């Protein structure tokens, strides 16, 4: 299984980035998890620019989504919804339909009771583009900055939860390939 991991945070030391870096670190043999690095480089979405050729950074984003078996998002909540830069990324996926039918999941790394406005908006956008939301792989895993060391989660209960999360993702992939 090849996952594309997309953080909605531009903050280097964010807990969302740490959650996804830990997912990458825990990838089982035979699986790959690639962290998308281009969020800050994407131009502001303009429908007039969403035609061939699209900006190179947009083409790279779309190619990475197409190459992935599934996409996993982790985003902070800002003012009760998605951060603007992350919504911009999602806007660049709408017209191309690269997410249509693509298996997707999210990891909410926010403090308990937080982040649900961002997740609700994310699910709305993913539903609009007809992504295949893998409900069983969408998890709330509160991460605090003191749980992070050198860019990954170091607390064992959270690492164990992400290892179990991988099992869920692989089971879902097995089901998808059997149904196809």
Structural write-up:
With 180 residues, the chain is of the alpha/beta class. It has a single domain, classed as Flavodoxin domain (Rossmann fold), CATH 3.40.50.360. The protein is 39% helix and 16% strand. Strands 1, 2, 3, 4, 5 and 6 form a six-stranded parallel β-sheet that branches. The chain has a two-stranded antiparallel ribbon with strand order 7-8. A hairpin with a 2-residue loop joins β7 and β8. The longest helix has 24 residues, at 156-179.
Named CATH architecture: 3-Layer(aba) Sandwich
Q: CATH superfamily membership, which one?
A: Flavodoxin domain
Q: Into which percentage range does the β-strand content fall?
A: 15-25%
What is the number of independent domains?
Answer: 1
Our count of helices gives 5
The counted number of beta strands is 8
Topology-level CATH name: Rossmann fold
Distance between the termini: 15 Å
CATH class: Alpha Beta
Radius of gyration: 16 Å
What is the average per-residue confidence, as pLDDT, rounded to a whole number? 94
Give a topology summary.
Blueprint: E1 2-7, H1 15-25, E2 32-35, H2 56-67, E3 70-74, H3 84-94, E4 103-108, H4 116-128, E5 132-133, E6 139-140, E7 148-149, E8 152-153, H5 156-179
Parallel strand pairs: 1-2, 1-3, 3-4, 4-5, 4-6
Antiparallel strand pairs: 7-8
TL;DR?
The chain has 180 residues and is an alpha/beta fold. It contains five helices and eight strands. 39% of the residues lie in helices and 16% in strands.
What brief labels describe this structure?
180 residues, alpha/beta, Rossmann fold, six-stranded parallel sheet, 8 strands, 16% strand
């Amino acid at each position: 299984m090849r996952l594309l991991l997309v953080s909605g945070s531009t903050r280097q030391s964010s807990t969302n980035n740490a959650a996804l870096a830990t997912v990458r670190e825990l990838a089982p043999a035979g699986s790959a998890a690639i962290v998308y690095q281009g969020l800050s480089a994407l131009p502001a979405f303009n429908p007039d620019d969403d035609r061939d050729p699209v900006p190179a950074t947009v083409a790279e984003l779309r190619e990475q989504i197409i190459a992935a078996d599934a996409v996993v998002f982790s985003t902070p909540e800002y003012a009760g919804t998605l951060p603007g830069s992350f919504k911009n990324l999602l806007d660049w996926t709408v017209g191309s339909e690269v997410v249509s039918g693509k298996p997707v999941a999210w990891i909410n790394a926010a403090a308990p009771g937080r982040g649900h406005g961002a997740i609700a908006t994310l699910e709305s956008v993913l539903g609009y583009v007809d992504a295949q939301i893998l409900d069983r792989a969408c998890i709330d895993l509160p991460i605090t900055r003191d749980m992070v060391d050198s860019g990954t989660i170091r607390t064992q209960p959270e690492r164990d939860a992400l290892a179990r999360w991988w099992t869920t993702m692989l089971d879902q992939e097995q089901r998808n390939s059997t149904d196809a």
